[in-house]
Design brief:
The structure holds two protein chains of two kinds. By secondary structure, chain A is an alpha/beta fold. A five-stranded mixed sheet of chain A has the order 3-2-1-4-5, with helices on one face. Chain B is of the alpha/beta class. Chain B folds into two domains: about 160 residues, Rossmann fold (3-Layer(aba) Sandwich), CATH 3.40.50; about 60 residues, Alpha-Beta Plaits, CATH 3.30.70. Chain B is about 35% helix and about 30% strand. In chain B, the strands form two sheets. A nine-stranded mixed sheet of chain B has the order 3-6-7-2-8-1-9-10-11, sandwiched between helices. Chain B has a two-stranded antiparallel ribbon with strand order 4-5. In chain B, a hairpin with a 4-residue loop joins β4 and β5. Chain B is elongated and about 70 Å long. The chains are: A alpha/beta, B alpha/beta. Chains A and B meet through α1 and α2 of A and β4 of B. Bound molecules: iron/sulfur cluster (2 copies).
């Protein structure tokens, strides 16, 4: 299964990014192959529609779960329709590595 | 002349100024229209009684994608510059996010499978009220659940039968709705309070207006309440103070009763006529400098 995590940077030591649509990077983690991919978020500075464009990006990677600090109502409803599970982590100090260890 | 009355945040007295100014201008015998551009929370008509003479909807077309014809080729999404389409071929999922759609028609042109048609969506209404004085108040009101107020604001601002002299009561803030309202004005009146918060908001509004190259002046509401920092800053920037409205219990009482102080108290009528005079003088000076 693939999981997307919003990250502030492109290393395992980077902290979780609390924003979904405008996060700095997406980490795509494959629980089977244990591989990670860091994708810079091209929608970071979009004026409008950063949320949907980011959904498009992570969903096209085939993820089944998305982990972030928060999701807007519209973003949530689209993910619901796609049957992608959302996990909210409120602890802003968590690193990507710590989150990966929990999976 | 088109004058926009604005404030960086709500509750600083913007509508107080626009409604009283509107009244004072009429009293001088000058035909004038007041347009409430705060489409998310219009409140100008709380201060007037009049009959609604016109109402028309502001309509936008939005695309409808028919799943049965769609091949999930993804072309419409690639053509959309506003991230308003989500298309996931593997999941056989396609969706238009109506809130983000700008009605540009690109997706319709892109689709080679006739899978896209259009429907009409009502964004809000423009209402026109005729007051007993003969003047009109125009109100833009956004429908519930609509994301962007801009089309409704523009619809109200373009009301075809407005007088030469029009006041625009701007939406609060400094983002797109405010910019849309300021952009069409010959002159912008910024209403603020002499507090650190007021100054902070004022600086942001001024920055935006400078970018738009607008002429503007400031009305200080509830003067005598806060501190001096706003006066020092205005002096330093050379921004004119058009009027100072003292903190006055009578103003607060009359306003809360939904009435106009310029109507109740002749002193204030004179005060707002004066403000109009200053705006005209100042706007005249600015345009002759260009
Ligand atoms: S009409 Fe334009 S903005 Fe709206 S969905 Fe189609 S391409 Fe996007
Ligand atoms: S362009 Fe037409 S066929 Fe292709 S994904 Fe869009 S709606 Fe479907």
């Amino acid at each position: 299964m693939k999981v997307a995590i919003t990250s502030t940077g492109n290393t395992p030591e980077s902290l979780l990014d609390s924003r979904f649509g405008r996060c700095a990077y997406f980490v795509i983690y494959d629980t089977q192959s244990k591989s990670t991919e860091y994708i810079p978020n091209p929608n970071k500075d979009s004026l409008e529609g950063a949320g949907p464009a980011s959904i498009q990006l992570v969903a096209s990677k085939g993820v089944e779960k998305v982990i972030s600090g928060e999701f807007g109502a519209k973003v949530k409803s689209v993910f619901d329709r796609l049957q992608i599970q959302l996990i909210v982590i409120k602890d802003q100090e968590k690193t990507i590595k710590e989150i990966l260890d929990l999976l | 002349m088109k004058i926009t009355i604005a404030s960086g945040k709500g509750g600083t007295g913007k509508t107080f100024v626009s409604t009283n100014l509107f009244f004072a201008i009429q009293q001088e015998g000058t035909p004038v229209t007041l347009i409430d551009c705060d489409a998310e929370e219009p409140n100008v008509m709380e201060f007037f009684s009049g009959i609604r003479t016109e109402q028309y909807p502001i309509i936008q077309k939005v695309p409808v994608i028919h799943d049965d014809l769609c091949t999930y080729c993804d072309k419409c999404r690639e053509y959309c510059n506003y991230n308003a389409i989500i298309c996931l071929p593997q999941a056989k999922h396609i969706q238009v996010l109506e809130d983000l759609c700008h009605d540009c028609g690109a997706c319709l042109a892109a689709c080679q499978y006739n899978a896209i048609t259009e429907k009409e969506k009502t964004l809000g209404h423009v209402s026109v009220y005729s007051l007993s004085s003969g003047a009109s108040v125009v109100e833009g009101r956004l429908s519930i659940g609509v994301y962007s107020p801009i089309p409704v604001i523009k619809g109200a601002m373009h009301y075809p039968h407005q007088e030469e002299n029009t006041l625009f009561d701007a939406p609060p803030g400094i983002s797109c709705p405010f910019i849309a309202t300021a952009d069409k004005a010959d002159y912008v009146v910024l209403v603020t309070e002499p507090t650190p918060f007021g100054l902070n908001d004022l600086k942001l509004s001024v920055q935006t207006l400078d970018t738009l190259q607008k002429s503007y002046g400031v009305v200080i509401n509830r003067s005598g309440l806060g501190d001096n920092s706003i006066y020092e800053w205005l002096e330093e920037k050379g921004i004119p103070i058009l009027a100072e409205i003292p903190f006055d219990k009578e103003i607060a009482r009359v306003y809360s009763e939904g009435r106009l102080i310029a109507e109740v108290n002749p002193g204030y009528r004179y005060f707002f006529s004066n403000l109009y005079q200053k705006i005209q003088n100042h706007a005249g000076n600015c345009s002759s400098q260009r």
